[in-house]
Amino acid sequence: MPIITIEKPLEEKLGDEAVQSLVRLLNSSYEEQKIQMLEIVEEKFEQRLSAEVDRGEKYFDKRLTEKIASVNTRIDQVEKHFDKRLTEEIASVNT
């Protein structure tokens, strides 16, 4: 919290009670502004964090889909290879 000082001429014009009241008012105003600023920053942070999480989820979903497609392709290749070998082995046994 900033330290608020009232210049002597103003203090003499206003008096002690008015100066103390002014300092309380300024401090209260400062605290209110601080709270409002923190709320704004917190809201913006939450929005940014939410957007980043969404972006990360989309990235990982895409990568997972790509990996699954890659594994499926590889399984299809291996299956075709074994089908071919099995057909060849059966043909060689029958001859």
Jot down its keywords.
2 helices, mainly alpha, 95 residues, rod-shaped
Explain what the structure shows.
With 95 residues, this protein is mainly alpha-helical. Helices cover 91% and strands 0% of the residues. The protein is built from 2 helices and no strands. It has helices at residues 8-14, 16-94. Helix 1 crosses helix 2.
Secondary-structure blueprint:
Layout: H1 8-14, H2 16-94
Q: State the end-to-end distance.
A: 96 Å
Order of helices and strands: HH
| Individual helix count | 2
> What summary fits the major beta sheet?
none
Q: Per the principal axes of the C-alpha atoms, what is the gross shape?
A: rod-shaped
Percent helix, as a range, is over 70%
**E-strand count:** 0
Mean pLDDT: 92
* Rg from Cα: 37 Å
Low-confidence stretches: none
In percent terms, what proportion of residues is strand?
A: under 5%
Structural class comes to: mainly alpha
Quick summary of this structure?
The chain has 95 residues and is mostly helical. It has helices at 8-14, 16-94. 91% of the residues lie in helices and 0% in strands.
